[in-house]
Amino acid sequence: xxxxxxxxxxxxxxxxxxxxxxxxxxxxxxxxxxxxxxxxxxxxxxxxxxxxxxxxxxxxxxxxxxxxxxxxxxxxxxxxxxxxxxxxxxxxxxxxxxxxxxxxxxxxxxxxxxxxxxxxxxxxxxxxxxxxxxxxxxxxxxxxxxxxxxxx
Length: 152
Fold this sequence. Notes:
The chain is of the alpha+beta class. It folds into two domains: 2-86, Beta Barrel (Elongation Factor Tu (Ef-tu), domain 3), CATH 2.40.30; 97-150, no CATH class. Helices cover 43% and strands 28% of the residues. The protein has helices spanning 21-31, 66-72, 97-105, 107-115, 118-130, 134-150, and strands at residues 2-7, 9-11, 14-17, 38-44, 47-56, 59-63, 79-86. Helix 3 (97-105) runs parallel beside helix 6 (134-150) and helix 4 (107-115) packs across helix 6.
């Protein structure tokens, strides 16, 4: 694990820290890349987290989400102690079974879904997976299918 301290700042509405260049160099080497999102894991004031390093406005950022802040007892403006490393474990988003069934029954919608960027697919799957009620899930699956049908 790589260690650093940083002050949690706000970038727009998001709490964020910019890891030091020497830490980033090691993570880039571990990940085998220095472009695109890089999955990481570690601790924030001894509270575990799983997150993604992203490059935004020319700098690599580690966003400190609400769950991380709450678990660490910190807030924006506080100096935090981080331990961080590349996380080789994939970030597979579960495919809601009902959505899979719906796509299996509509080939044109399935083809349109397959043509979406991986990021857009993940966004849709995350959203559908976050819905709490069966009615909301059914309603939103139909909305997604309708949008996918219009793309063909």
